[in-house]
């Protein structure tokens, strides 16, 4: 079964492609997304083998989105514009389908994808990425784990504290915690996630970090696990 993802800002286009996918038993639709930020969350949480992506979308277009991915799935661009075909194929797209899309044309693109997917050798597991993507303004910003000192939760937003800047983005604390490696980041209080090797000292109920003047509070329910992480429990 081939896991598919659709990205298109037009509801009718998403419904049409989803209907085509439903008619092909080899395909399984993981999600149908209206924008790339929603699609990015899906890619970070589930295996996607084949991406059907529009190109002309607000904020971040389909070409920019695929270019930003560390290990993108196979891609079929489905767009109203024929003018970006060369750019699409430069990104190793399997096909470039111009709207309106008929079922026979869709099946032709899918058959091309199935031939490639079924002939690929078994790959070794890809190394886990050492970064996450977050929305900053109208851009997707890649943030390396090594750059992060701590993350502060503020209801539906988070603040990511780097050495020389702060990124504020619309993301829940629980969601970003799922994207961070548990062996490198730990929650020390309900509102604080800290990169453990950035902790310089634990003083009472406060954590001191390298290079930063502020001290962060350690919640009672998190203190024991924090000490155990350093073999101090």
Please describe what this structure looks like.
The structure is a single chain. The protein has helices at 11-22, 36-45, 62-68, 85-90, 103-119, 173-179, 220-229, and strands at 2-7, 27-33, 50-53, 74-79, 95-98, 131-136, 139-144, 148-154, 157-162, 166-170, 185-189, 192-195, 199-203, 206-209, 215-217. α3 (62-68) links the parallel β3 (50-53) and β4. With 233 residues, it is an alpha/beta fold. The longest helix has 17 residues, at 103-119. It folds into 2 domains: 2-119, Rossmann fold (3-Layer(aba) Sandwich); 131-229, LytTr DNA-binding domain (OB fold (Dihydrolipoamide Acetyltransferase, E2P)), CATH 2.40.50.1020. Helix content is 30%, strand content 33%. The protein has 7 helices and 15 strands. The mean pLDDT is 90. The modification 4-aspartylphosphate is found at residue 54. GO terms for molecular function: DNA binding; phosphorelay response regulator activity. InterPro entries: CheY-like_superfamily, LytR-like, LytTR_DNA-bd_dom, Sig_transdc_resp-reg_receiver.
Provide a quick synopsis of the model.
The protein has 233 residues and is of the alpha/beta class. Helix content is 30%, strand content 33%. The radius of gyration is 21 Å and the shape is elongated.
Helix and strand topology:
Layout: E1 2-7, H1 11-22, E2 27-33, H2 36-45, E3 50-53, H3 62-68, E4 74-79, H4 85-90, E5 95-98, H5 103-119, E6 131-136, E7 139-144, E8 148-154, E9 157-162, E10 166-170, H6 173-179, E11 185-189, E12 192-195, E13 199-203, E14 206-209, E15 215-217, H7 220-229
Parallel strand pairs: 1-2, 1-3, 3-4, 4-5
Antiparallel strand pairs: 6-7, 8-9, 8-12, 9-10, 11-12, 13-14, 14-15
């Amino acid at each position: 079964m081939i896991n598919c993802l659709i990205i298109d800002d037009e509801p009718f286009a998403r419904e049409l492609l989803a209907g085509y996918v439903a008619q092909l038993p080899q395909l399984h639709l993981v999600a149908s997304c209206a924008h790339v930020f929603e699609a990015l969350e899906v890619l970070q949480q589930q295996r996607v083998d084949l991406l059907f992506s529009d190109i002309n979308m607000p904020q971040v277009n389909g070409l920019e989105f695929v270019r930003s991915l560390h290990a993108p799935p196979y891609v079929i661009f489905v767009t109203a514009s024929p003018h970006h075909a060369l750019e699409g194929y430069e990104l190793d797209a399997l096909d470039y389908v111009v709207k309106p899309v008929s079922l026979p044309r869709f099946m032709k693109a899918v058959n091309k994808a199935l031939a490639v997917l079924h002939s690929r050798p078994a790959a070794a597991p890809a190394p886990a990425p050492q970064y996450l993507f977050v929305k900053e303004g109208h851009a997707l910003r890649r943030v390396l784990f090594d750059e992060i000192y701590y993350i502060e939760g503020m209801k539906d937003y988070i603040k990511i504290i780097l050495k020389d800047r702060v990124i504020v983005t619309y993301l829940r604390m629980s969601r970003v915690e799922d994207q961070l490696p548990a062996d490198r980041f730990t929650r020390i209080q309900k509102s604080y996630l800290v990169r453990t090797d950035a902790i310089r000292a634990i003083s009472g109920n406060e954590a001191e970090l390298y290079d930063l003047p502020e001290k962060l509070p350690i919640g009672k329910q998190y203190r024991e696990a924090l000490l155990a992480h350093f073999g101090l429990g």
